[in-house]
Amino acid sequence: MARLYESRKRILVTGGAGFLGSHLIDRLIAEGHEVLCVDNLFTGTKRNIDHLHQHPRFDFMRHDICFPLYVEVDEIYNLACPASPIHYQHDPVQTTKTSVLGAINMLGLAKRLKVPVLQASTSEVYGDPTVHPQTEDYWGNVNPIGPRSCYDEGKRCAETLFFDYHREHGIQIKIARIFNTYGPRMHPNDGRVVTNFIGQALRNEPITLFGDGNQTRSFCFVDDLVSGLIALMNSDYTVKGPINLGNPDEFTMRELASRIIEISGSCSTFTKRPLPIDDPRQRRPDITAAEQMLGWAPKIPLNEGLIPTISYMRETLGVTAEQFLAEA
Ligand code: NAD
Ligand code: UDP
Ligand code: UDP
Q1: The domain that contains 154 carries what CATH number?
Q2: Is the minimum distance from the CB of 279 to ligand 3 under 6 angstroms?
Q3: Tally of structural domains, the chain
Q4: How much distance in Å is there from the Cα of 49 to the middle of ligand 2?
């Protein structure tokens, strides 16, 4: 898309080589902006941004956001952080550092440049919720010392920092509490439920239901989520608080598995595994605030989003299985 130079922005996306970040960059480039992708490639991969390397409005910098970053940009999307439980529990101290030190550095950058900064927060700030569906004013039910705490408390502390920088320095902040999102470019070995189930279904292996399989999640297709992030960044939404972004359709893990089996034409059966510690029993966003403040709501139902996701996984596992296993 052609865009006049005056309206073209130079946008920093941290974590841009990851699943969500790479889709966000595709959209920003398509809208005519310049994008600087900063990523340490901990869970992301250059393959997700390979198609952009020759693009004149795209730059990549390998950098860990725990360290200061001096660049000149007009907007910051801070997405850098491992998101799947097996990835963020692999090096929990680094996970907390990424959320906390990373937030301080991105806020310091936003303060110096006087530009807006968006934080990719998470529904995990609600922990194992006692309020359902989750509204933004719910303070959460989070274990501060468990295996998920490095992620949950790191993200909670990042939200605190964003609000304190806003109150103390007047920085324009945007906080998206992202609920489970899926789609092409998810890491096939990230251990998250969608990739696990699809991989098992494609190999006709038993689907691993953790616990009784009756716990619930709400799954948002990546294209919808990216629209929500951009709507939040571009909105005049004055800082009232974080905002939930997700798809409110709620499914048990057993229902999710059945749909994946059906769509992929698999002969997989079920097998049970122990429920991980602190695994939330239920999760569904209340997105009234996003609907009213941003005019945003997800459009893509689960079955529709699963089709391209399954195709991506089929291609990825078929074509480059060895490469992915080596990287896992
Ligand atoms: P991802 O693991 O695919 O992407 C994260 C990216 O951040 C990777 O490319 C990784 O290499 C990079 N990264 C990690 N630590 C870094 C560091 N210290 N410095 C620079 N780069 C670093 O995960 P994702 O699913 O794309 O998630 C992106 C963001 O959205 C994360 O902040 C995550 O917490 C948040 N989020 C995602 C979901 C979801 O369902 N996908 C849900 C809630 C929140
Ligand atoms: N920072 C950065 N890039 C900048 C400006 C600041 O990475 O362009 C980092 C800086 O290294 C500091 C952090 O952001 O550690 C917080 O900055 P702030 O100005 O709030 O803190 P101070 O420099 O006063 O400690
Ligand atoms: N889950 C499962 N089988 C798997 C992987 C996950 O039943 O092979 C369950 C897990 O216990 C959780 C839900 O699926 O209740 C979502 O897990 P995921 O790791 O994708 O995300 P999160 O727990 O962070 O929402």
Answers
A1: 3.40.50.720
A2: yes
A3: 1
A4: 28
